Amino acid sequence: MHRVRAFASLTAVLLVVPAGCSVAGATADGAAEQVVVGYQSKTINTVTAGTLLRAQGYFEKRLEDLGRETGKRYAVTWQDYDTGAPITAQMMAGKIDIGSMGDYPLLINAARGQQNAQTHTKLVAVTGYNVRGALNSVVVAPGSPVRSLADLKGRTVSTSVGSAGHGLLVQAARKAGVDPERDFKTENQQPQVGASALESGAVAALSQFVAWPGLLVHRGQARLLYDGGALGVPTLHGTVVRERFATDHGDVVRAFLRAQLDATKYLHEQPLAAARIVAEATGLPPEVVYLYNGANGVATFDLTLKPVLRAALEQDIPFLTSIGVLQKVDLAAFVDDSHLRAVYGADLDRDTASTVNPAAITGTDKACGRPVTDPALASEVWPAGGEATQPAATPTCALRAVRALGAAPRAVYVPDATTGTRWFADKSVWVRDPKAPEGERLKPFAAPSTAASYVDSHPGAAVVPYDEAVRSA
Questions:
Q1: Tell me: the pLDDT tens digits for 398-421?
Q2: 11-131+234-353: CATH class
Q3: Cystine design at 133: which of 12, 138, 228, 296 (Cβ 3.0–4.6 Å)?
Q4: Homologous superfamily assigned to 136-230
Q5: What pLDDT, in 10s, does the model give residues 324-361?
Q6: Where is each SsuA/THI5-like domain found (predicted)?
């Protein structure tokens, strides 16, 4: 339990706004213009607008460039929060200028801001997204008898009400024929509290957003019950600004977006180094950060406001309305790509139309002696003590590489055979299908339910232990 508490203690960091700067954008010392940025260091698919961007100093560098044009000086204050709700509260009070948060909090931010002409906010960019919804998951204790969402009937589930993790729980339960209002009790808890409750046995399951599911599974404190990718509902995080600040300081907003582009470019080109930077800044294991933010990671990092993501926000509104946290929101007035369009360049429309992960696994698979070309099968092995990862053309090739190492690797990442969700190989459910093509007969699944569905629809297929899969690869 002490490891969960140690992680939880890191989520309480709050940098106080300097004295004399009670309203964001005002000057603290009469010389430097203040810019206040709210972010969530542990929500690691916002790192390009938060943790990584801050650690690399990209925003400060861009403001220095801006200062040479305007003759002004700028000072940045960073505020780290557990969730998006306090960032929204501070934005409504005029005390945070730029923030980043998930899809549900973004909609709540928009609705609250639109209640007053002075507090309007704008969604100006995306940080990370998953087009199938795999950034949210449901986990249970390792020895839990719960094998499916139907098994949660009569039990208690922890989630953060109004979050995307809550939305996943409700929608997935309904899809499985379970009534989330009658069949199980929902406990409204912050992620770290829910993690402790799961470990103590106070709740039967935890439904949360990154990085909690991956962290608990990696540590052996949980196993995946439901892969959010099975729901097929896109989820995203984004960058939001106060409209008045953007009107008065559009050049600063554009400098921030240039810095976010800098951070995204670095993450795409140096995914392992970026994961290590985020791990160092947050205290999260680098293996967990890399699961989500690495090459072919669960999160795709792309600033563009894609139609599929706008549609997902539109589809989220009825759920948030039904649970009473949202009354009215004008999504068209909230989404604004004008600042991004001003800094992005000629490829904006092309990239807006694409959902291909720019951070691909590439190279030559040494275990199978072939190039890595199919992102739906591409896997990755991180040897113990290794400074680099090894690409694998398929999950089976990844298993062969593990066997060839002769020592337990630091981590192995493989995509779920049906949802594509990247997961830890040793925490996956493996199925042997003798009728599958050569080299693809060992198939990983992130959750038992997707493995069971595959076995039921493929005669002759059977679940095998991970160690056996490695030996027989």
A1: 999 999 998 899 999 999 999 999
A2: alpha beta
A3: 228
A4: Periplasmic binding protein-like II (3.40.190.10)
A5: 889 899 999 999 999 999 999 999 999 999 999 999 99
A6: 122-273
